[in-house]
Amino acid sequence: MHSLEEVWKHREETLFPALFGTVTRGIFPLQAVLFADVFGQADIDPRWLHLGVFEFAPTVARPSWLYATSGGSTPWETEPVNYDPDDYSGLGVEFAMETPLQADWAIAVLQRLLAYHVLLCHGHFGGTPLD
């Protein structure tokens, strides 16, 4: 990959559809109000508002609805010449959840988990990032 945009495009247009199927309703991005109201963090990096959750309908191979975060693996702080395919990218993880029925609550749970992980990785709360 030669740019941040190529990494993003590969994940959302190639990798995720191959793994999970077709996106149903687009991305549900993180909102500033989530960081402020839930975590008490009003001063956030605007790039965090590009992260979010995708919803994937059941497929022939998977009878469940699948929800996956996107953006946690974006290498914001790494120059493209330093991308290492054998190392963590960005915050190191994406999260996924399966439900038997379409569930907006799953989107909200993953948005909160992703926002918490972003804050944790950037020194808030004093803990160890999820791995």
Description:
By secondary structure, the protein is an alpha+beta fold. It has one domain (4-121). Helices cover 33% and strands 17% of the residues. The protein has helices at 4-20, 32-39, 104-121; strands at residues 23-29, 52-56, 65-70, 96-99. Strands 1-2-3-4 form a four-stranded antiparallel beta sheet. Helix 2 crosses helix 3 (104-121). It is globular, with a radius of gyration of 15 Å. The two termini are 24 Å apart. The relative contact order is 0.19. The mean pLDDT is 88.
- The low-confidence parts are none
Q: Given the C-alpha coordinates, what overall shape results?
A: globular
Number of strands: 4
Mean pLDDT: 88
Order of helices and strands: HEHEEEH
Helix-residue proportion: 25-40%
Number of helices: 3
| Rg result | 15 Å
Characteristic key phrases:
131 residues, alpha+beta, 4-stranded antiparallel β-sheet, 33% helix, globular
Quick synopsis:
The protein has one domain (4-121).
Question: What layout of secondary structure does this protein have?
Answer:
Elements lengths: L3 H17 L2 E7 L2 H8 L12 E5 L8 E6 L25 E4 L4 H18 L10
